Amino acid sequence: MGAVAVRQKNPIVLVGLSLALLTGARGPVPGLAGAAPSPYTFTFAGSPPAPLPWNPTTWDLQIHKRGIGSDMEPTLAQHGADCAPTPAMHPIHTLAEAVFICRNHLMTAINDRGYGVIYLTPDHMVDFSGDGAVIGFNLSTLRTSQRDWIDLWVSPFAENLATPFQDQNPDLQGPPRDAIHIKMDQNNGQTIFRGEIYRGFRGSGLDHSWQGLESVVASSGVTRTRFALYLTRTHVRFGLPESHVWWIDADVAALDWTRGVVQLGHHSYFPTKADGCGPPIDVRTCSGDTWHWSNFSISSAVPFTILPGDPRWVSPSAPGPVSFPAPAPPNAFLRFSGIGPQCCTYDVSFDRGVSWRPAQRQDQLGTADEHFTTYWMPVPARTQSVQLRGRNWWGGPWWVRDVSIWADTPPGPAAALPGLPPDPALPVWSPGQPAPGRPAPTAAAQRLARAVRFVARQPAMAIAAIVLLNISVIGAAGFLGRRRRR
Questions:
Q1: Per-residue pLDDT band at 287 (split at 50, 70, 90)
Q2: Distances in whole angstroms, Cα of residue 430 to Cα of each of 435, 452, 484
């Protein structure tokens, strides 16, 4: 039996050692194993002399209205033209002005009669395996319209939508296949929150409290109150941790996923309509709201790569190309939203227009031509520029918004290289020089190191070397086993 054990186990152990030689034994390899969860915080820092449009490099930003174009129905956003605090205001009339920084926090303000939404997505997923996780953020509490609200989505990476919505009307294409959704609502003139769990596109509501937000904290466009979402595979809890008020505190059937993309949403659906004032009873003038955000955190987070595209919008009059701040890492995806028939409106080129391929639609419920659709398709490694082209359709010209590249691997040097990044934690040495804290290598060791480095830089040769080495190891183990049986 001993010979059989050697024959079964030792080759596998040595296969791992051969891989370690070629990879440098750096621990989890991007694309092969995920990063270990750790806390993540983001503060939206910045004190500009005037409202500064936010163009993040590590977050995905979606600014959407129901129609095409980059303009917005004029509205007044909180903070003055010099960033003076609320109740000072300044006018905005383009989508690019809808998300801005003042006084070390972030504002979102959007106004659209047809429907508008802003989504903020950090480059860290929540990991609620084990004991679970907490997503927290500070938010203003002044509401000027019932038709203007915030929400929060958590969905698996591969199922994310650029602009999710719990319905397909009045806009967009519905929810992700699987998700956790927290939505602001109202009851008897006060603000409440509801929760839903989506499984296979089917949503089920969670039990919730009817207690009004305004009965707990004073409505304020200056003070930002702490909200928190606690998640495990079997429990969802949302509310005000500092006030010990929970709108949702519900057990759920065990989820079959434990990591998700986090999206903070601000929705606007004709907020100036006469029936939408409040909910505070002293608000008599209906207007789109400005939400103030700060101190975002995830207690157990895993980083992933987001490369925002420039320009953010592509159309017949401005066809691109779209460039990215770094090359796409392996196993990355191109992500954007576009209007028009999902079957045949958009093509994508990854080689500067030499060849084209149809854009791939992300899995979603809706099929409305006149609603923007999420597109999600593999992008070749090292891609740093893409071209998109479209076909005008029965509703008008084609239009693409908020193009980006996403990868389920941590950002950093790995995103810019086809192979493994250098590991600064490991000593680096050259032949003829001793590594720090180690004796000078022998001539044989130097030759071996040069051979390993050369092979590691040639992917095909590396694979062949592993195969040959492992065949030799397995053959040797079999020979030893036969000798021992004799």
A1: confident
A2: 8, 13, 42
Asked if residue 233 lies in contact with residue 180, where contact means CB atoms within 8 angstroms, the answer is no
Residues in the chain: 486
Does 321 sit behind a cis peptide bond, omega within 30 degrees of 0 on the bond before it? yes
Cα(254)–Cα(329) distance, rounded to whole angstroms?
A: 33
Give first-to-last CA distance, the chain, whole Å.
13
76 DSSP β-pair partners: 91
Model confidence band, residue 227 (pLDDT cutoffs 50, 70, 90):
very high
Tell whether the model's pLDDT for residue 360 goes beyond 50. Answer: yes
The predicted-structure confidence for 304-327, as pLDDT tens digits, reads as follows: 999 999 999 999 999 999 999 999
C-alpha to C-alpha distance for 278 and 274, rounded to whole angstroms: 10
Q: What share of the chain is helix, strand, coil (3-state, %, to 5)?
A: 15, 35, 45
**87 token code pair:** 């109740």
When pLDDT is averaged across residues 341-357 and rounded to a whole number, the result is: 97
Give CA–CA dist 259/39, Å, rounded.
14
Q: List the chain domain ranges.
A: 2-26+429-485, 38-303, 308-416
Diameter of the chain measured on Cα atoms: 96
* % of the chain with per-residue pLDDT over 70: 75
User: What are the DSSP calls for 167-190, one per residue?
Assistant: SSSSSS----SSEEEEEEEEETTE
CATH topology of domain 38-303: Jelly Rolls (2.60.120)
Question: What is the tens place of the pLDDT at every residue in 440-456?
Answer: 445 554 555 555 444 44
DSSP string, 340-370: S-TTTSEEEESSTTSS-EEPPBPS-S---TT
Is 308-416 a CATH 2.60.120 domain? Answer: yes
Say what the pTM is: 0.79
Long-range contacts of 474-482 (CB under 8 A, 24+ apart): 474/11, 477/6, 477/7, 477/10, 477/11, 478/7, 480/3, 480/6, 480/7, 481/3, 481/4, 481/6, 481/7, 482/3
**Residue 85 · residue 79 · CB < 8 Å:** yes
Q: Is residue 421 within 8 Å of residue 428, measured between CB atoms? A: no
Measured distance CA(386)–CA(335) in Å, rounded: 11
List all residues 6 or more positions away from 417 whose beta carbon is below 8 Å from its beta carbon: 327
The answer to whether the 38-303 and 308-416 domains have the same CATH topology is: yes
